[in-house]
Task: inverse folding
């Protein structure tokens, strides 16, 4: 292979420093989730195609990566193509609307997971007899989407989901907001803004404004507020055929700003006849009441928040940070999460942390701790076989005390070994030449201070321990 | 969907207890690797097909999972099928030898990673300017193989690889054996057997026996020794056309047993004229010399070890355990790891831990620590809104001290809440009813001892701390 090797577009390699930082985010999330009693699960990368299709809308279905069948199945597939069977024409046309209509391919019956929510619902139904409810789970795994790659958007990325299923108590919403606050605080991102909405309020607003029959159109328009502004939303609604008087009423409600308790009071007053809106308002109040002040003060009511409204039924949550343009965490309540897999009446609520975005934000704000560096602690320079043998023993002793230590594998030129020590950022370089070997000594160079010490080999561990605990 | 949902054959869901145990294995490996200065990397699940194909032999190529192309690419594919282009006939025939020959499919140009070694080689070449050599990396990620699923063999499983590239020093082999010993000792599997071989010795034996031209046939036969015994190997060799006298000579060498230093001495004496064999013997001796006694005594020279000989060029390593039928770790030295991607002369050596097998073995021997259980520490029973509010505050205090704590989300019947407490294995159940609320108290039930205590709410953290540090 003469060409420089490459990887598929939209995918990434992670170098050691990046991997360690990613691991730090995941470990922080994991330990927090566990403190709240959430338990890890893992699901396979591949799901049956019928588990995934139809769950993400038409656009989502197109972005699911399918796996090519093997052996006998592929044979059948080819026969069906060559035989021009008409059975599954729609499938191919959906994949590519410009395709000629006389051929269709219904290829593959397995696919890569597109998110963690649908596999979780499938998991709960399939393993329901092994679980105790309410079941609180977290899951940190990659997902794949055949999206057009662009800055900050990848075809493979990690999701980090935390959900509770089997309880409709609003304490769950409150608990998740506490988890959100804890995770971000531990990552140094305590100054988040938590935007909260409730589908029932939005729905009540639509009804009160006479837009009950246009609910989806209304929310699709509102969802674009960030991009097109309030006037743009108004135009979009009217373009979609919503009556102008209703649009005005709805937008007056939605555009309310200010202290969250005040806004709820005003809304409640102006939507007195709307039972559903009142229920939504009551839900938001209950969530707020269960929050410690530290978290509550980060919560804003944002009635323009309509993300994924097609399946959220109660709370809608989105977390933002002033230094980042898009949300870094989001989720909500869905009253019938597992119904699609034959287990009705299971209410779930959860949030998903955007690990890649959090990484980018932390990198920008320089929030990763220095201790995450790939630096080793002690590098033993290799002067030859006999000297290296002494080094190996000392390195093993240091590791027993938790110090990462390496013996340079080759008796290479000093310059080359020191270059390695520098590039890897070792704190100490240890030298045992023929003289030190005879004397039972080791020369230690502190690469940060430049100081040099002659230490007895038998005192080395204590020396390093003292040196590092000084700091 | 009426049917019970399922997952693709050969894949698995992991329940919380399993996930925690898997995580324990990975964390143990990771922390050990880092002590030795190995650094984590991650590569994408998908690689370009031409990165993978041709690297795993004909059988391996067939087992690579391909990804279906999207949009325009799929369109072109279908046109080529319908147009019966002859360009890529071989590809499809290779996939399915029974297929009619008039149609071919050259589908997909991306595939799921089949192991971590080839992606690592690709990674090193692609990112060479970002790395300092020798580069010591570990990688813990899933791989996918379209193998026929059976007990203990999955289509998705984790590999846990540790390699050093860019140094041909035998200290690396020794270091890896120390890592192997450390990881398994930390997992409670210190009584491993490390089988060591060297391709150069095998090659020298073949030459000395006049089988130099039959090296591959010889090693393929030897590789089956476990299954067919020494007589079976002899028959297989003869069936493959190896001269009988040579077969006898080779098997006499290969069958030597006993103390490793003795065997090396005998081999060295009887292969005096074979420079390559002598080099191999010398390599094994140097590796042994660099090992601490604790590790050396676990090493056996096993000349029948021929795993993956087609690319190993020096050491071949396999780790076994008396309580498990197959190897739980293996690897070796390959002198030109990155040459296939255009960067020649990079020698690499590494081992791969079989996480799934290690899991099964640890489960069988009950080696997972009790602390890995999914049990929470404190469950607060929910008696209603006001009581729950007090519980939420206490639970938050306990979490600050590192105790996993939950407030049951609903004011459900006592029986239901206690059932949850039992199934989740909580150590303590905390009760704040209306009476406790008035008195600022909390009733604590120790679920292990059955003892019950009345504790002031303000003293709860200290109480739990005392109780748990007693144990």
Result:
């Amino acid at each position: 292979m003469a060409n420089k090797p490459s990887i598929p577009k939209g995918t990434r390699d992670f170098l050691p420093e990046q991997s360690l930082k990613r691991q730090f985010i995941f470990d922080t999330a994991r330990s927090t989730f566990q403190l709240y009693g959430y338990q890890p699960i893992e699901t396979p990368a591949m799901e049956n195609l019928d588990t995934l299709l139809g769950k993400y809308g038409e656009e989502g279905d197109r972005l699911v990566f399918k796996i090519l069948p093997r052996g006998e199945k592929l044979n059948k597939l080819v026969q069906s193509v060559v035989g021009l069977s008409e059975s599954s024409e729609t499938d191919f046309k959906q994949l590519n609307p410009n395709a000629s209509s006389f051929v269709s391919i219904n290829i593959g019956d397995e696919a890569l997971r597109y998110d963690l929510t649908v596999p979780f619902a499938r998991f709960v139904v399939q393993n329901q007899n092994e679980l105790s409810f309410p079941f609180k789970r977290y899951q940190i795994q990659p997902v794949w989407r055949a999206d057009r790659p662009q800055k900050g958007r990848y075809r493979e990325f990690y999701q980090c989901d935390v959900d509770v299923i089997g309880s409709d108590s609003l304490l769950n919403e409150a608990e998740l907001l506490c988890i959100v606050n804890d995770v971000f605080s531990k990552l140094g991102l305590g100054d988040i803004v938590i935007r909260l909405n409730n589908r029932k309020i939005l729905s009540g607003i639509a009804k009160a404004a006479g837009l009950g029959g246009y609910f989806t159109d209304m929310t699709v328009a509102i969802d674009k507020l960030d991009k097109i502004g309030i006037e743009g939303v108004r135009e979009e609604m009217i373009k979609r055929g919503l009556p102008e008087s209703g649009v005005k009423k709805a937008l007056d409600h939605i555009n309310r700003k200010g202290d969250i308790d005040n806004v709820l009071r005003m809304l409640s007053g102006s939507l007195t006849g709307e039972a559903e809106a009142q229920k939504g308002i009551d839900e938001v109040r209950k969530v707020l009441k269960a929050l410690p002040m530290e978290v509550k003060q980060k919560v804003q009511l944002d009635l323009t928040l309509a993300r994924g409204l097609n399946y959220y039924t109660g709370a809608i949550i989105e977390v933002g940070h002033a230094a980042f343009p898009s949300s870094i965490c989001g989720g909500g309540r869905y009253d019938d999460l597992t119904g699609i897999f034959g287990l009705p009446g299971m209410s779930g609520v959860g949030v998903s942390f955007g690990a890649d975005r959090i990484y980018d934000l932390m990198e920008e704000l320089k929030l990763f701790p220095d201790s995450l560096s790939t630096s080793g602690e002690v590098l033993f320079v290799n002067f030859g076989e006999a000297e290296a043998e002494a080094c190996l023993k000392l390195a093993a002793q240091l590791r027993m005390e938790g110090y990462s230590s390496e013996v340079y594998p080759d008796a290479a030129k000093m310059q080359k070994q020191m270059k390695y020590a520098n590039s890897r950022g070792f704190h100490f370089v240890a030298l045992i030449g023929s003289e030190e070997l005879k004397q039972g000594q080791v020369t230690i160079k502190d690469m940060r201070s430049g100081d040099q010490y002659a230490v007895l080999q038998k005192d080395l561990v204590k020396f390093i321990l003292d040196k590092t605990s000084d700091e």
Summary: Residues 190 and 267 of chain A are 29 Å apart (CA to CA).
